[in-house]
Amino acid sequence: MTVRTLPPLGPTRKLKLPREVERTLPNGLTVIALRRPAVPLVEVRLWLPFGKAHLARGLMMSQTLLSGTDTMSSVELAAELQKVGGGLSSGLDSDRLMISGNGLVTGLNRLLDLLAGVLTGATYPADEVATERSRLIDGIRMAQSLPAHLVRKALLKRMYGKHPYAVQTPEPEQVEAVRPAQLRTLHAARVRPAGGILLLVGDVQPAKALDAAERALSGWTGDGAPGELPAAPPLEPGPLLLVDRPGSVQSSLRLALPAVPRTHPDHAALQLANLVFGGYFSSRWVENIREDKGYTYGPHSTIEHSVAGSALVVAAEVATEVTGPALLETNYELGRLASLPPKEDELEQARQYALGTLQLGISTQAGLAAVASAYAGSGLRLEFLAEHAARLAKVTRDDVAAAAATYLAPARAVTVVLGDAATVEGPLGVLGPVRTETPES
Amino acid sequence: MAAGRSRIPATKHSVERFTLDNGLRVVLAPDRSAPVVGVAVVYDVGIRSEPEGRTGFAHLFEHLMFQGSENLEKLAHFRHVQGAGGTFNGSTHLDYTDYWETLPSNALERALFLEADRMRGPRLTEENLRNQVDVVKEEIRVNVLNRPYGGFPWLRLPPVMFDTFANAHDGYGSFDDLESASIADATDFFDRYYACGNAVLAVGGDLDVAEATALVERHFGDVPARPAPVRPDFAEPDLTGERRESYTDKLAPLPAVAAAWRVPDPIGDFENYLPYVVLAEVLTDGDASRLVERLVLRDRTVTSIGGYLGLMGDPFDVRDPTAMVLQAHLPPGGGVDKVLRTIDEELDRLAADGLAADELARTQARMATHLLRETDAVLGRTLQMAVLEQQRGDPGLLGELPRLVGEVTEEQVRAAAATLRPQRRAAVEVVPGGGAR
């Protein structure tokens, strides 16, 4: 057989950032527009700071925001959006209310008018609120039967204690208690242009897009008092928390480790340390517990950034019978990287992946909108991407070793496992102290 | 107040097609708007071609294609793609199996090398087979066995709707079948179905056509010629009476139902198939759609409803026989009979009274946005073109879809709705067996 050798890579293409234009309107709303003309569409993202809101009311508000305005029913609004190929949806997390949409670029003005109509005139009609309330409750019931949701819930509580981040899904009875008047009050107090960021990405002339946004949204006024969140508390390691799910054929393994915000000097080194450990397929941990031992299908480790803090979360669903060994290998790989620097080729591979996926991430309108809005929510602009790429290019093996020792040390991990306690408690107990809980009902 | 009918924009992707001497079909789709490329190789074999006693084999084999090849050790494929800044995956469908990379464009040649190497021969070893059987079992546990509504409805509807093994069996496979798979099975499967005459290579994105053509010839030109096997006819007669089954999902907290009807041949009768794709959206796209307005907002008999073509939600990359599927989740204590009756009623009303003045046009405008949005991503574009070349010899159809969807008439949508009769319907109901915790 002919031996063939891997062709070398061509010259690296320079990171090409689209031009970003920005304007702050008199009402306090910041509007950012980016041009990517590959398809005749436009993406819209409105990021509103929403920390510290009442959880059940906030969630119900985001669920019913598009349920009608002073001039349109929910069905009329949906039909008007469809006419320009448009759609809008709204979602809430502990930091923000995000209204996302897209449509044919020829319908941008109409899309913005409809968005403005919702922002200034959402009515929260009693009937629609009742429907959405039942749907949200059913959705929560459904989520509560999913292992991924149950383990996430236990992990957040364990990580954040009394901080507002600790609980991100309300209980059905809390949703049951929400009334339309409370939604109108919450909207009036918090759905405000000040501090908000509207992002438009697509086949647009950026300056014209800013004009269109100003025309449509300058009538949206009112002062807001964004709820400042206290900084997230540091993680407190302790016994492994085992949450019982009798009869489970897999265990959901989660470890939370400390991390830093994107602007922190350690961020680039930590990102590369995470990649070498478990942040992509060609990482030590994935090669070990999936490709060598076959314990799991889709293990992943990710740095999660929120306004009040960042965390590194390690996650795998493993067969019940190998729960102990899978945790052992996880701690081994964390400890190995925290104790010894990575090899040069491992670092280069992770670096190329980090740089390449920056390019891939911004190569679509929707991807560009996602990156730019995540940055904007942290007070950054797209140019940060270029600065970050330059920092990634400079990280050394020593930098990675230092970051791993600081952030990936297994001694600093908060560990939660959801699974069949009767089967896995013993095997987990031989690795360290375990505290077993049955989920609250 | 209302804006008029939106003009559906045309997009023109430049597409080059050619066939190498060994029979490999190639599609090149340059688009230099971002410095990235997508590479897709699609083999014309999927779940329907699995032999009896080997359920799940097409998918298991997809895993084996990543376990090393002629010049590459196990793990090398992943490392070379990601070490070039790219991402990769593969997936198994009813009628095809795909493999893809998306990378910064300076890594194009590397991706071609990797795909050519495994087209010449994957490294099939006992150790890797046993390892990947374990991995696939965990995949099935996480997606099917350990979660509520696992495999609903894509694994649950086919055995209700179809009678032949090819169309009805579980595409993820039974643990027994997976565990008894052998290297000999894998070698046979590769020899039979992974012939270069049975494959399409598509490359899209930041490329120069002449340069890319030379690279494709350099890497794939010496893959030994092997012809495509004859694809069997998987046709089955339509249902003549309603079929209805239910099963208890011990993890599910709430009831659910999926109903499906056979539709015209997506390839051979595209003109009559397309109205069903539009109909599914008229029925379920957002609050202004027929069934959402009626069942979710007015009657409150379902909490959500979705409609799509193809059991895997793949309207333009599935062959005959296939189905239109409606899938709904119900509130606690909800009755499936009532939901199915209301669906029948709404289909009757649509067939008899037609659509409201702007109903069709606005649905088509929204569909155009969805189609264009998928083609903005180099990978979405490249994969779709590969399958369109393989199944239709027409990758350029991708750019035509928004317009063709826009040309579907009210009469066609009404006629499609009129065929969705209860006696042609297969339905499967999930009986909740689990509490909320």
Automatic annotation (TrEMBL), chain A:
SUPFAM superfamilies: LuxS/MPP-like metallohydrolase. Residues 64-170 form the Peptidase M16 N-terminal domain. Residues 180-352 form the Peptidase M16 C-terminal domain. GO terms for molecular function: metal ion binding. InterPro entries: Metalloenz_LuxS/M16, MPP/UQCRC_Complex, Pept_M16_N, Peptidase_M16_C. PANTHER family: METALLOPROTEASE (PTHR11851), PROCESSING PROTEASE (PTHR11851:SF224). This is Zn-dependent peptidase. It comes from Plantactinospora soyae.
Automatic annotation (TrEMBL), chain B:
GO terms for molecular function: metal ion binding; metallopeptidase activity. Pfam families: Peptidase_M16, Peptidase_M16_C. Transmembrane segments: none annotated. One of its GO terms (biological process) is proteolysis. Residues 25-142 form the Peptidase M16 N-terminal domain. Keywords: Hydrolase, Metalloprotease, Protease, Zinc. Residues 182-366 form the Peptidase M16 C-terminal domain. The keyword Hydrolase applies. It comes from the Bacteria. InterPro entries: Metalloenz_LuxS/M16, Pept_M16_N, Peptidase_M16, Peptidase_M16_C. Signal peptide: none annotated. PANTHER family: NARDILYSIN (PTHR43690), PROTEIN YHJJ (PTHR43690:SF17). Belongs to the peptidase M16 family. This is Zn-dependent peptidase. It comes from Plantactinospora soyae. The lineage of its organism: Bacteria, Bacillati, Actinomycetota, Actinomycetes, Micromonosporales.
